[in-house]
Amino acid sequence: MTRENPLFPAKSLDLRQIVYEKIKEAIVEGIIKPGEKLSEVELANSMAVSRTPVREAIRQLAKTGLVTLTPRKGAFVTLPTLEDASALYELRANLEMFAVSLIAMAPPMEELAKFREIFESMDNDTSPGEYLVQDRNFHNFLYRASGNRFLSGVLLDILDMINLYRPYSLAEHNYLKALSEGHIAVIDALLDKDGERAKREMKEHIDMTRTGVEAYLQNNPAKDLS
Fold it and tell me: Hey, what domains does the chain have and what are their CATH numbers?
């Protein structure tokens, strides 16, 4: 199935937010690649808008970490680094372990069962794009299901950076089945209302993802944009 390019012309009263969301989606989906320079003119032409909302969107994206502003050179999609990946995944692991410990006290059985069916159907022949969509959906669901709005808020704040790194987790090894089984192990622990087991399974799953990201970045170090 052909993926729709988010950079089609924007038509909305809330133009600034629409332009921001379109550029962010293009970055997270890999349509605009890490290290690629963001041209205000080209982006404005693609979306049939003026350069002003594009400029504002780029500044807003720089605050999230998705874009790097380099003096006298311009704006670039942030190149993930090994150091940043390690720090981000350590934070993510601890936050998501806390989230599943909260969910285990009153797990939403029906929703968890649906995700279990989805991941049970996946193997190493599954499209990486399909896996990444469901992976994002599952973890976003966990953030909301935690019931702690402050925890959810922190996770959502770093979600864009997490999504930027996600494709790298699949770049080095074909282990979609193992990653899917990691999700299932977390789900089974939650269905059993076993918070400690859910935390262990979540840590193991994120550590596996982190290993894939770090392996890719070690073999493909970021270039200095300064």
Answer: 15-77 (1.10.10.10), 82-219 (1.20.120.530)
